[in-house]
Write a structure and sequence with these properties.
Layout (H helix, E strand, L loop, with lengths): L2 E5 L4 H16 L3 E6 L3 H7 L7 E3 L9 H25 L3 E4 L5 H11 L3 E4 L7 H6 L5 E4 L13 E3 L13 H7 L8 E5 L6 H8 L2 H6 L3 E5 L10 E4 L6 E5 L5 H7 L2 E4 L3 H10 L3 E3 L9 H11 L3 E3 L8 H10 L1 H14 L4 H14 L11
Parallel strand pairs: 1-2, 1-4, 2-3, 4-5, 5-6, 6-7, 8-9, 8-12, 9-11, 12-13, 13-14
Antiparallel strand pairs: 10-11
Helix pairs in contact: 1-14, 3-4, 6-9
């Protein structure tokens, strides 16, 4: 049995795969501890995972504005001290980072104490943390086809994002009923990622009557602190279709399974869950995402046939695209078939076997272990 310290806080896109990895490791008899941030989204997500030990590491995101930069500079040393003390007392056999500002102190602590470090990058454009910390890692896990020239090729393994055990396709009618929707009517779900998306919230709000007239129900997860902090049901004029807005959902498998179509940002975590649940999507990449990585994620998803992409600059045409896909069952069936093909990879199993290779056999940077 080995001990794994998993750094995965800051966003749902980092935390969800960290939980998925912890589920897999603990099922194989290993011990885990997960480092998270003090952000609201982390606190809400971990509420239902009482079997895991979550520790809040000091830190704040990097940014170029003076206040953000100062806050980051002041808190990162605190995070490093926290991780050094934890690593010395708990003695993990490996440290795994999923990127973001919580990964830097954990990785540097591992480097200082000689503990093997692994990093996982889910996006098709590696983020700042992965690029800068990669030289300290024994393993770098990248999406298939993605390169990172700043680290030795021998350290790179190509593997997709693991998803939590609970994320699986559910009966659409049952999922709709569980969410308070009419099980007999089609559903459009709006997902802005763990932080929400004001642009998508406003877009769907302005078109409720149009969707209601088409008999389409709407379920929108707005994000915490986006002006809708409390579940609400909005009745569109002249129709009985239900329009539900919630600030946060810990039932994303139900939301995705209930939907005939999802309009979403293009974070890697959301895309992995769409693939697992087999639900087509129209993606609107967040244009301010670091290195425009959401555009790269969305382009790959569409190239593989999981759905379509509409830039945020073309939101005026999004309604027509959504209605066209909602009315075309054959097109959605084609998307679903492609999503089933995309879901064939055993990402979690690949990660588990290789991490055990690192901790048990030292990870000689040779060929990736397979079952």
């Amino acid at each position: 049995m080995s001990r794994f310290l998993i750094s995965c806080g800051g966003t749902g896109g980092h935390l969800a795969p960290g939980i998925a990895l912890a589920e897999g490791l603990q099922a194989r008899g290993h011990e885990t501890r997960l480092l998270i941030s003090d952000k609201k989204v982390d606190a809400r997500m971990v509420e239902k995972y009482g079997a895991f030990t979550f520790l809040c590491v000091p830190g704040s995101p990097f940014g170029w504005s003076p206040l953000t930069l100062l806050r980051c500079a002041m808190t990162q040393p605190l995070g490093l001290g926290f991780c050094l003390r934890l690593a010395r007392s708990w003695r993990p056999d490996a440290i795994v980072g999923f990127g973001g500002f919580t990964s830097a102190p954990a990785v540097l602590a591992g480097r200082t104490l000689g503990i093997p470090v692994a990093l996982h990058e889910a996006n098709r454009v590696p983020g700042r943390a992965i690029r800068q910390l990669g030289r300290f890692a024994r393993r770098i896990y990248l999406p298939p086809g993605v390169r990172l020239d700043s680290v030795p090729a021998a350290a790179i393994r190509h593997v997709g994002l693991p998803v939590r055990r609970e994320v699986a396709r559910r009966d659409p009618a049952s999922a709709r009923s569980a969410l308070g929707l009419d099980p007999s009517r089609p559903v459009l779900a709006i997902l802005g990622g763990s932080q929400g998306a004001v642009a998508l919230n406003n877009w769907v709000r302005s078109r409720l009557n149009s969707f209601a007239a088409a008999g389409i129900q709407v379920y929108c997860v707005t994000g915490l602190g986006k002006g809708w902090d409390g579940a609400s049901v909005v009745k569109a004029e002249g129709a009985g279709a239900r329009m539900i807005f919630v600030p946060f959902s810990d039932r994303i498998p139900d939301v995705i399974s209930a939907a005939d179509l999802v309009v979403s940002r293009a974070g890697a975590g959301t895309l992995a869950e769409l693939v697992r649940c087999g639900t087509p999507a129209v993606l609107v990449p967040f244009p301010q995402a670091a290195d425009n990585h959401q555009a790269a994620n969305a382009g790959y998803f569409a190239q593989e046939g999981g759905g379509l992409v509409v830039p945020q600059t073309a939101l005026d045409g999004l309604e027509a695209t959504v209605l066209r896909v909602m009315r075309d069952e054959n097109l959605r069936d084609e998307f679903r078939a492609n999503l089933r093909r995309m879901d064939l990879a055993d990402n979690l199993g690949t990660l588990l076997r290789d991490l055990e290779d690192v901790t048990v056999r030292g990870g000689d940077n040779g060929a990736l272990a397979v079952a």
